[in-house]
């Protein structure tokens, strides 16, 4: 991995989920103990019995600066392309860019393609240090604000369908701003494709290929270590589920097959229970599902667990959860909303952090 890891759904929100998404700020609450110093999984000793481990872990990747693949990408504009919605878009210039999505992934990609200086605003989830002082164009969480966007006079907007309301996108299009909509599906398998979509819109295809390859190599390197060190026998693997919760909105979902969370779980060497119990997509959580899953470990977004009143609040709402190994051992692993399912250039760091928490928590 090019980054020194310090020693110290696809999630496409729709309907009620979108309303729930608008409450988090992408950062952990100050009252929670947040672990940001995460060793390389290659350097730690794993537990011989990870299913017997206990305790909650609240992780967050450090805010190290993104590393562009090039400082001076060769930009070939104008370019005409068909975006992910089939809309034909001509990009003449990309001197004032807004790259907006629920996880800050598109801004991260833009910066790592070498065009960070052209970013003129940010969404709430774009938290890396060079972008933090840029003006926000999302209000009330992840809600696009048309006036804030147009005030920045962008000459290109790259976005997906994870932010709303969509009327704002149409508003800025009507104002003459080119809008390129990229794929909202997020998983490890389409990370390279997402990078290349952004690179194509920016006229830096060569830089896109380089960043996609670098990201793929980093993911492959971490997965190779996980494959070598994590349990391989099915009976020894951590039975794991991903819960998406917005307690104040009454949103309690378990993410299953084809949600993106399943790919994340499998990549960490854990056992994705959703396939076993036939849990597909994103479905409301219920006692039957929890009893059937019998998870050893539960992975969540930091703000989601906080909104439910922490582990105690979640166990109070779902008493059946207390009767699962994860509930009994309080084995909850959380990461910020803006990181855990972002599936962008920091995917390898996310996998590394989760693997350490799952198999070597004493090293944190």
Distinct helical segment count: 14
Strand content: 5-15%
Structural category:
alpha/beta
Rounded mean pLDDT is: 90
Q: What's the SSE pattern?
A: HEEEEHEEHEHEHHEEHEHEHEHHHEHH
State the helical fraction: 25-40%
Count the E strands: 14
Question: Describe it for me?
Answer:
This protein is an alpha/beta fold. Helix content is 34%, strand content 14%. It is built from 14 helices and 14 strands. It has helices at residues 16-21, 105-115, 146-151, 166-174, 191-202, 205-229, 261-267, 273-277, 287-293, 302-307, 310-317, 325-329, 337-340, 347-359; strands at 57-58, 79-82, 88-91, 97-100, 138-139, 143-144, 156-159, 179-181, 239-246, 251-255, 271-272, 282-284, 297-301, 332-335. Strands 1, 9, 10, 11, 12, 13 and 14 form a 7-stranded mixed β-sheet that branches. A 3-stranded parallel β-sheet has the order 4-7-8. A two-stranded antiparallel ribbon has the order 2-3. A hairpin with a 4-residue loop joins strand 9 and strand 10. The chain starts with 15 loop residues before the first helix and ends in a 5-residue tail after the last helix. Mean pLDDT is 90; it is low at 1-31.
